[in-house]
Each structure stands twice: as structure tokens, then as C-alpha cells.
Amino acid sequence: MVTVGTKSVCTKSGRAVKPGVAVKLVVAMASVSALLIAGACSTPGGDVVYSRFHSVPSGGWAELDGREFQPFAEDTMLQPGRYDVVLCLRHNGSFAFREMRLAVETPGHDGVMMTDTVTVRMADADGRFVGRGSYDLYETADTVLKNVHLERNWSIAVAPAMPGGDVRDIDKIGLILLRR
Asked: How confident is the model at residue 168 (pLDDT cuts 50, 70, 90)?
């Protein structure tokens, strides 16, 4: 039992721990958990040169509420070149679908925005989540573009494309670029 306050705190072993130490232990445990979750997005091949996540509304992610990523504008050290483009979805254990369809918009060669639908497999036929995670938080990654040349003006917008309205139980949508 950990109680933070002016009194000593007891651990499982029954030893008393000073309140400041208890706070440090809780913060350390939270930091380790965050690192494990951040590293959970398994991205095969290449060096990760860009990684950003956007939160989505807890009440549900609406079809018209897309999230935009502008990697070259956000990271001035990022150079045009060949990349794999990976989308990551963080969700909780209540996510009710085997797959998540996403509307993805990227600039075309002539400057006109191109829209496509990407389907990310979230669970197997038995309903077990295919992503990594635990404690009711999971992350699924899918490479949506492989070995593509990206210029400085490249961006990507992502929105849910699921039937039935708002999508619940998605916490964050992320973009990872892997250098080829």
C-alpha cells in the first residue's frame, strides 16, 4: 500500500518508507511504464527519425475530426529522402472492432491532395488484440507506405472511416517515419 502524505508509507514487505521516497517510487514506476508503452510500437527495419502522437477525444473520434502530421515543418533537422511511413493506433481494451479503417490524405505529385482508405488490423479472429500492450492499453502499428520519397512539403492527415459514427476507445494516433 502506498499512501502519500506526511506519514510514513508501508511497502509489501512491511518496511516504512518516507513520504518523499514513496513519491519518487511512484514517479519512477510511472516513468518506466511510459517508456515501455512508448517503445511498444514495433517498427520493423530502418531508423526512426520522426515519431509524433496526437490525442483523440475520449468521447469518440469523429469522421470529420482528422489529425494532421507535418513532419518536415515540425522537425527542421528532418531531410527529404526515402522513408517508410508507419501509422500507430493506441487504444484501450474496450475497443470493439477487429479492424480500424482510416481515411488518409497526402499530397500528390501535382499538388492535389490524394485520399485513400487504409485498414489496420486490430484483433485476430478470436478477438485478441494483435498489437503490443498490457494493463488495458494497446498499440498497433502498420506500415502504410514503403520506401517512398518524401519532400519538405509532405504531410499526412488521418481520420476514422468507420461506419456508425464516432469511434470510441482510441486514445492516440501516431506517425513514425523510418529512414530507408
From this structure: very high
Provide the percentage of residues in the chain whose pLDDT is more than 90.
67
SS (H, E, C) the chain: CCCCCCCCEECCCCCEECHHHHHHHHHHHHHHHHHHHHCCCCCCCCEEEEEEEEECCCCCECCCCCEEECHHHHCCCCCCEEEEEEEEEEEECCCCCCEEEEEEEEECCCCCEEEEEEEEECECCCCCECCEEECCEEEEEEEEEEEEEECCCCCEEEEECCCCCCECCEEEEEEEEEEC
Q: Which residue has the cell 483523440?
A: 56
Q: Which long-range contacts (CB under 8 A, 24 or more apart) does 29-35 make?
A: 33/135
- State the pTM of this model: 0.74
Which of 5, 79, 29 has the alpha carbon at shortest distance from 49?
79
